[in-house]
Specification:
Blueprint: H1 11-25, E1 28-37, E2 40-46, E3 51-57, E4 64-68, H2 79-87, E5 92-97, E6 104-110, E7 119-124, E8 131-135, E9 141-144, H3 182-190, H4 196-203, H5 209-219, H6 236-254, E10 261-263, E11 267-269, H7 275-285
Antiparallel strand pairs: 1-2, 1-5, 2-3, 3-4, 5-6, 6-7, 7-8, 8-9, 10-11
Length: 286
């Protein structure tokens, strides 16, 4: 990755951001919205002492949700920004929802905490399929980032006035499980006659190319190029080292144990634990 090119935001990064946001902006009042770029919305939420800003982008190559400093005023006259600013005025953000390994985020609004949900914002941060939806209490689409015609998708038509339906679930991949044994993990990955990195991507939910690079980095096995080898040709000694890191990732993800660190010059991770502790775990396993 070249310096200055944004790292793709995977589900682990998304969950880390949402965990921090939930602690910082729930509950708070919607303040304003602006759209500085066609595929980007910035929203301000007023807390007790200050205004917190988030930025959501649904551009395919850099879809993201992040907390930002107070931005310059720009794009508050766009149609989407005006719809949000008018429709959510004086409303309270009462919940932020995201289910397991799904990259779909739902912000729920009510007149005040404890009241029924009357408006929602849904962000689907799924690469080229990323989008934003503004819904009423009946899940009808009031506004959205981009309309999807039936000719563009065989799964659903997306336009204002339609009722929102979530993306089809990914039932072909397994959900990562902390209790899965090494033997079962290896068996699952062995069903694909391809490099280990592809087996991980095709077998388990939540796996991204950057996660594979993170696991490879933390296992300190990059020099063996194991991710490009078939799992059946990899010695169990090395596989177990990768498996320990894999389980640690699941543990951090499930228990919201996130911390930011950089690695390999221009990459970042939100879940790396203390390296000495990880290495100790590996040695104990062997």
């Amino acid at each position: 990755m070249l310096k200055g090119v944004p790292q793709t935001m995977d589900i682990t990064s998304i969950k880390a951001v949402l965990h921090n946001l939930s602690n910082e902006i729930l509950p708070s009042k919607f303040e304003t919205a602006q759209q500085p770029e066609p595929n980007t919305i910035q929203i301000g939420f007023r807390g007790i002492n200050n205004i917190n800003w988030i930025e959501v982008c649904w551009q395919g190559d850099c879809a993201r949700i992040i907390k930002i400093d107070r931005p310059d005023k720009q794009g508050n006259a766009s149609t989407l920004a005006r719809q949000l600013s008018c429709g959510l005025k004086y409303m309270a953000l009462v919940s932020i929802k995201q289910d397991k390994f799904e990259r779909v985020i739902q912000l729920e609004f009510a007149k005040k905490p404890g009241d029924e949900i009357s408006k929602s914002l849904i962000f689907e941060l799924m690469g080229k399929h990323s989008n934003i939806f503004y819904l009423d209490s009946n899940q009808k689409i009031i506004a959205l980032g981009k309309q999807i015609k039936s000719s563009q998708s065989s799964f659903r038509k997306i336009s204002t006035g339609n009722y929102y339906s979530p993306p089809p679930p990914n039932n072909f991949k397994k959900e990562p499980n902390e209790n899965e044994t090494f033997e079962k993990w290896k068996e699952n990955l062995s069903s694909f006659s391809e490099p280990l990195k592809n087996s991980l991507l095709n077998t388990y939910q939540g796996v991204s190319p950057i996660l594979i690079k993170q696991i490879e980095h933390l296992s300190n096995l990059k020099k063996y190029d194991l991710m490009n080898k078939n799992i059946l040709s990899i010695d169990n000694k090395y596989l177990k080292e990768i498996f320990v890191i894999w389980k640690k990732w699941i543990n951090c993800f499930v228990n919201n144990q996130f911390s930011y660190t950089s690695f390999d010059n221009y990459f970042y991770s939100v879940w790396f634990p203390e390296i000495k502790r990880i290495l100790r775990l590996i040695y104990q396993k062997n």
